[in-house]
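User:
Can I borrow your eye for a moment on a structure tokenisation matter? Would you put together a sequence-and-structure record for a protein of your own picking? Please set it down just below, with no commentary around it:
AI:
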Amino acid sequence: MTINFIPGYVIANEGCFYWGWYPACELQIFLVLPIIVHYIHKTKSKAIQSVVVITGVLLGMGINAYVIASNGMAAGLFAP
């Protein structure tokens, strides 16, 4: 699996391939999302569907917060 964030030694928005994180994220979403959508569509219970969606959103936010905090990164487009 590839790393989806810019390493500390690279200055954001400088260099020839600073946007290289995007294809990696796009591929991972392309591979994982159909499985999740199929599971949600197959499940008839609205409560289970809601739990799966909310859990996915909270898990994604938690992983982002952990990566930002553990690597001492700044969150934001124009962050130093």
Q: What stands out?
A: The chain is about 60% helix and 0% strand. The two ends are 27 Å apart (CA to CA).
